[in-house]
Amino acid sequence: MDVVIIGAGQAAAQLAASLRQDGFAGSICMIGDEPYLPYQRPPLSKKFLRECGSPESLFLRPAGFWHDHEIQLVIGTAAGKVDIKQRRVSLRDGREIDYRTLVFAIGTRARALRLPGIDLGNVFSLRKTDDVRQLRPALDAARRIAIIGGGYIGLEVAAAMRAEGREVTVLEAQDRVMARVTGEEVSAFFDRTHRQRGVDIRLRTQLVAIEKQTNGLTVRDSAATGISADVILVATGARANDELAALAGLACEDGILVNELAATSAPDVYAIGDCARFPSRRYGCRLRLECVQHAIDHAKAAAAAIRGEGAPYDPVPWFWSDQYELKFQIAGVMAGHDAVEMIGDLASTQFSVEYRRNGRLIAVDAVNNARAYMMGRRRIAEETDFGPRDS
Q1: Mean of the pLDDT values across residues 249-274?
Q2: In the predicted model, is pLDDT for residue 110 greater than 90?
Q3: Would you say residue 43 has pLDDT above 90?
Q4: Going by C-beta distance under 8 Å and a sequence separation of 6 or more, which residues neighbour residue 254?
Q5: What is the pLDDT of residue 386?
Q6: I need a surface site. Which of 58, 184, 194, 367 has the fewest CB within 10 A?
C-alpha cells in the first residue's frame, strides 16, 4: 500500500481527500477503530448530544466518496503494532498491511481520572459517537447531572442540560473555569453566565471517590462533601494517543513529535492532527492543538509534504465553543502574555479580549463578536514574528 493512515477522523479524512484532489494516484488505506465512516466530533457535545441523531448525520463524506476516489477504509478494528523496519502495520484482528508511507492520525482519548468508583454505571466520558449514544438515554432519565471538569466540553454539556431543565453541578479542580484556554476576565464572564442560568459551579474541588447510593450516585470531595447525581460526566480533558507510535520507536512527548513538515523521527512516517506536537516558530515552542481547523490544515500540509511539495506549517490556531446563545471564538495562543486589553462591555455579551507579549498581539478571545475574531486572526499573523520566543 502506498499510503497507510492510522486513524479515520477529521485529519485522516482530509489527508486522504487532499492527496486525491491534488493528483496522488497511489493506493491509500485508512484504518479506524470505530465502526463508522470518518465523522466530525465537535457536535458530540453540542447538537448531536441534544438531538442524538443517527451517526450518519456526522459523516464527513458519504460512503460513495471513498469508493469513487479509491480510498480503502478498514474500519471497526485498530492497529495493534507498527514495525518501522519492515514497514508493516499489524491490526488487532490479525491482518497485516505493508506501507511505503505511514501517517499517524489517531487523535486523542479522554484523560483517565484515577478515582474510586469511576467505573460505576452512569459515569460517562464524551469522546466518540457511541459515548453519546450511551449517555443520551441516561440523561433522558436523569434529573441531576454532575460534570467533573469545567473546560469546553464540561461547560457545553452544562449549557445543554440547563436548556433541558436539568440540575447541573460542575466540579472544577482549578480556581476558575476554562483556565487552560482563556484569561481571568473571560473565565469570570462564563462562570457568572452559568451561575445565572442555575449551574452550581464548585471551584478548587478535589475529588476522592464516586459512590453508588440507592437513589443514584454521590461524588465525594476532600472536605467530605457529597454531591448527589443521577449521571456523572467526566470531562477532564484529553491526552494524545501516542503509545502505538512510542512502541514503534518514534519520539513522543504528550504527542508524536514532528517537524515543520509533519514528519516524525522515522523515514516516511508522518503524524497529524490532535496526536501530533509540532514546532511553532510563531510562538517559540512546540504545540499540540485539539481543533478541527488544525486537523484540516495539518492534513493538507502533510499531503503536500508526501507529494514532495511541502512548506513549513506554522498556523495561527483558532478554536470555538457554543454555550447557550454565546459564540466563544479564540484566535492564537495566550500562554506567555504580559498585557491584556478588554474591548467592549462584558455586560453586553458582545466583547473581545486581546493578549499581547512585548507589545505584539498573540491571542484574541471574542464573545458574540465574529468581526473582532476575524480581524484578530489577521493581526496576529501580521504581528507575530517567526523568531524564537521572547525571554
Answers
A1: 97
A2: no
A3: no
A4: 239, 240, 242, 277, 288
A5: 54
A6: 184
From the CB of residue 350, how many other CB atoms can be counted at a distance below 10 Å?
A: 16
Across all residues in the chain, what is the average pLDDT? 94
Structure confidence by residue, pLDDT tens digits, 348-369: 899 999 999 999 999 999 999 9
Euclidean distance between CA atoms 16 and 214, whole angstroms: 51
Domains and CATH numbers, the chain: 3-109+239-306 (3.50.50.60), 112-236 (3.50.50.60), 325-383 (3.30.390.30)
Q: What percentage of the chain carries pLDDT values higher than 70?
A: 98
d(CA 177, CA 158): 12
Q: Report the pLDDT value the prediction gives residue 390, as an integer from 0 to 100.
A: 44
- Round to whole Å and give the CA distance between 373 and 365: 7
Q: Assign 3-class secondary structure to the chain.
A: CCEEEECCCHHHHHHHHHHHHCCCCCCEEEEECCCCCCECCHHHHCHHHHHCCCHHHHECCCHHHHHHCCEEEEECCCEEEEECCCCEEEECCCCEEECCEEEECCCEEECCCCCCCCCCCCEECCCCHHHHHHHHHHHHCCCEEEEECCCHHHHHHHHHHHHCCCEEEEECCCCCCCCCCCCHHHHHHHHHHHHHCCCEEECCCCEEEEEEECCEEEEEECCCCEEEECEEEECCCEEECCHHHHHCCCCECCCEECCCCCECCCCCEEECHHHEEEEECCCCEEECCCCHHHHHHHHHHHHHHHCCCCCCCCCCCEEEEEECCEEEEEEECCCCCCEEEEEEEHHHCEEEEEEEECCEEEEEEEECCHHHHHHHHHHHHHHCCCCCCCC
Q: How confident is the model at residue 21 (pLDDT cuts 50, 70, 90)?
A: very high
Residues in Cβ contact with 68 at an 8 Å cutoff, skipping those fewer than 6 apart: none
pLDDT tens by residue, 69-85: 999 999 999 999 999 99
Residues 6 or more apart in contact with residue 26 via CB below 8 angstroms: 2, 3, 100
Average of per-residue pLDDT across 30-43: 92
Residue 273 DSSP symbol: G
